[in-house]
Design brief:
The complex is a heterodimer of chains A (about 220) and B (about 450).
Chain A (H helix, E strand, L loop, with lengths): L6 H33 L4 H8 L9 H10 L6 H14 L6 H19 L6 H19 L6 H20 L4 H18 L8 H4 L4 H15 L3
Helix pairs in contact in A: 1-3, 1-4, 1-6, 1-7, 4-5, 5-6, 7-8, 8-10
Chain B lengths: L6 H10 L7 H10 L3 E6 L2 E6 L2 E9 H25 L4 H4 L5 H5 L21 E9 L4 E8 L7 H13 L1 H6 L1 E2 L5 H12 L4 E5 L8 H11 L2 E3 L4 E4 L2 E5 L5 E9 L22 H6 L4 E3 L10 H4 L2 H9 L6 E2 L2 E2 L4 H10 L3 E5 L8 E3 L5 H13 L4 E5 L5 E6 L2 E15 L3 E3 L4 E4 L15 E9 L1
Parallel strand pairs in B: 3-22, 5-13, 7-8, 7-11, 11-12
Antiparallel strand pairs in B: 1-2, 4-5, 4-19, 6-22, 9-10, 10-11, 14-17, 15-16, 15-17, 18-19, 19-20, 19-21, 21-22
Classes of the chains: A mainly alpha (about 220), B alpha+beta (about 450).
């Protein structure tokens, strides 16, 4: 009976996968931009956040880290990890307990800097990266993957596809990611129609996102 | 006053004194990491709060626990028989053991359920019985029966799990009873009463004070955690709504919602945490509810007075565990005693719980006592009075030093084909030294309970 998952839990597992991947990829980009801001390109952070349709202002490399992590915008890392934490609490009976603990710790890591005078630096981001790797590792170690794990994987892949499209990554790999999403959708909803090859290879970002979203909406019925 | 140290305590302290005290901080880290908390609303804000805990366990010998075990089995057996009798033949009332008006005035008595008998005739499946150990005669005394939705079992399970990771020495070197079977006891009970379908744990939702526990017990017992609107009643049958819209039949529901909010069609129409039509399905015998609707009558503080009589009436046995000496102002003789001795008694409002509505005569002024007498006289059914029990303190390691705190013990008793007592329980200690109120809602903490043998 492990295939039984309520729509609410399924949605939260999906968003858990998305928010973890979002935190993972955004942190990676933040660290790269931070390095450039120091002495190569002072506007590297501005350019990065333009990709997210956010106008970010900072006056130093360290301030960039603070704005990226705690700034008042929808892509701040504190909020992304808070959302992941909330999804994990709602769906904790369906996720690996070690992974659950690491998710709580990940959010606590960023939350702690709002309550203390800890300086935000690269070590904090490195620590967050390690925690996220441990979370993925904990998810992967499950001996018998069941359907509830697939919602997390689907969220992770959708977020990856979204990132790839935003940053103009290799289209053939993006198409492969979308095919993987398609395969999961097939398992979760036997009545689903696969994405057509031409659609999955389309370079039109909006087209692809629409197709993916339509499929996901077919999987979870509220 | 502390309980006399035994050889078991000595063994514990011998190991404890060799442990790295710094590692105690790891308990908090671990509990925070795994969100072992309870939720509350304060000034309109939702707050997640860690429950205070202590690392020094309460130690009970196997022999001593065997008596508690036997006494609790007897008590829960009698309480189940009482509930089944009360809602069907009501022989105990007809035979004059309990006054009819006394039962019918109990807040938890639901006359709409008279004549209905639930699956396997079990009504009190998961029970939390509160006890204290009286320092006057070194005996365990029952203070309260919680037969509706007793909570708290997940906390000792969590702290035990943490203990084993941080201080394995105790478990390698001492003979401590394992406790991991509690979720399987619940699963066994759910299966026993299941009317055909899956088992679910019904939670009011993420913002309930005990959501952590609901989620924990669902995961460990193998039941599915659901919120009210994730269940649907069709043709007097209850279904689980799967993510894909398919409906799966439900056979038993471990509900963590009070009766009055369970079904807006039957009880409170404003309830947002109920399942419309659930009571109809239940009365049709199509789903089992754990615990049964209407159990509130048996954990009414006034009915508690009659439990020893129930044991004798239904089982023909003497109670193994005794009640605290209790008086009912409802009876004239008792009322006179209460009024003559109010300054040394504890007065409890039967409608209150969680340590609220408890008044200690020795802490009241003469004027307050007179006021209370007037209130009691006006509504004697609403109150009970008990002799103040000087129950033992437990040693607690708080703020890096050993301190004494009064502590009670909630035992968990689960009914399936047999009645089983969990070899652990929730030991709750008071916030301040000398305080008798141990409830978490009064700021109290909890500690593990080790049933041990030499």
């Amino acid at each position: 009976m492990s295939q039984l998952v309520t729509a609410n839990v399924a949605t939260n597992l999906y968003w858990l996968g998305r928010n973890l991947k979002r935190a993972n990829q955004t942190l990676h980009k933040i660290l790269k931009a931070y390095d450039l801001i120091i002495d190569v390109d002072r506007d590297a952070g501005v350019k990065l956040y333009k990709t997210f349709d956010i106008e970010l202002k900072y006056d130093s490399a360290v301030d960039f880290l603070r704005q990226a992590i705690l700034g008042e915008h929808r892509s701040n890392i504190l909020e992304i990890t808070a959302n992941a934490r909330e999804s994990a609490i709602i769906s904790r009976h369906r996720i690996d307990s070690e992974a659950f603990g690491e998710i709580i710790e990940l959010h606590a890591l960023f939350d702690s800097i709002t309550k203390t005078d800890i300086e935000i630096d690269y070590k904090l981001i490195d620590k967050a990266h390690s925690l996220i790797s441990e979370i993925w590792g904990a998810f992967a170690k499950r001996e018998h993957t069941n359907k509830s794990d697939l919602f997390i994987t689907m969220g992770r892949l959708v977020e990856e596809a979204d990132f790839r499209l935003r940053f103009d990554k290799d289209e053939t790999i993006t198409a492969t990611v979308i095919q993987e999403i398609d395969a999961i959708v097939q398992v979760l909803n036997e009545d689903s129609e696969p994405v057509k090859q031409t659609q999955s290879q389309s370079s039109d970002e909006d087209d692809l996102i629409t197709v993916v979203n339509t499929k996901i909406n077919q999987v979870i019925v509220e | 006053m502390l309980e006399k140290n035994t050889e078991l305590h000595a063994k514990f302290w011998e190991i404890f004194n060799k442990q790295d005290r710094q590692k105690i901080d790891e308990f908090q880290t671990y509990m925070d990491k795994f969100a072992v908390n309870f939720n509350l609303y304060k000034d309109g804000n939702f707050i997640e709060q860690s429950l205070p805990f202590d690392v020094v366990p309460r130690i009970i010998s196997t022999e001593e626990f065997a008596k508690i075990d036997k006494g609790l089995q007897q008590r829960v057996k009698a309480l189940n028989l009482f509930l089944e009798d009360l809602y069907t033949d009501a022989k105990i009332v007809k035979d004059g053991i309990i006054p009819e008006t006394f039962v019918k005035e109990a807040g938890g008595y639901l006359k709409e359920f008279v004549g209905f008998s639930p699956s396997q005739k079990i009504r009190a499946h998961i029970n939390g019985i509160d006890l204290v150990k009286d320092s006057a005669d070194d005996e365990w005394v029952i203070l309260e029966d919680n037969l509706r939705v007793p909570s708290g079992a997940s906390y000792p399970l969590s702290i035990r799990d943490t203990y084993r990771k941080i201080y394995p020495d105790f478990f390698e070197n001492l003979k401590i009873d394992p406790i991991k079977d509690y979720p399987s006891m619940i699963a066994e009970s759910m299966e026993y009463v299941n009317t055909g379908g899956i088992d679910v744990v019904l939670t009011p939702g993420r913002f309930n004070s005990a959501y952590y526990e609901h989620s924990y017990l669902a995961e460990k017992s193998g039941a599915h955690l659901v919120r009210p609107h994730e269940l649907k009643v069709v043709d007097k049958k209850v279904y689980f709504k799967n993510y894909n819209g398919k409906l799966i039949r439900v056979g038993s529901i471990y509900r963590r919602t009070d009766d009055e909010f369970l079904d807006p069609k039957f009880f409170n129409p404003d309830s947002l945490i109920g399942v419309p039509g659930l009571v109809e399905a239940y009365l049709a015998g199509n789903v089992a509810l754990m615990n049964a609707i209407g159990n509130g009558v048996a954990d009414d503080k006034g009915i508690y007075y009659f439990v020893p009589k129930m044991i004798e009436y239904y089982l023909g046995e003497k109670p193994i565990l005794k009640n605290a000496p209790t008086y009912l102002p409802y009876f004239e003789e008792d009322r006179k005693y209460i009024f003559d001795n109010m300054e040394k008694l504890v007065i409890k409002d039967v409608a209150e719980a969680g340590g609220y509505g408890v008044l200690f005569g020795h802490e009241m002024t003469a004027l307050q006592i007179e006021d209370l007498k007037t209130i009691v006289k006006a509504n004697p059914r609403r109150f009970i009075a008990q002799e103040l029990i000087e129950f033992y303190d437990e040693k607690c390691y708080l703020n890096k030093e050993l301190q004494n705190r009064k502590a009670d013990f909630r035992a968990y008793v689960v009914a399936a084909e047999d009645i089983k007592v969990w070899q652990c329980g929730l030991t709750r200690y008071a916030l301040e030294e000398g305080n008798y109120l141990v409830n978490s809602s009064q700021g109290g903490g909890f500690k593990d309970t080790w049933v041990m043998e030499l």
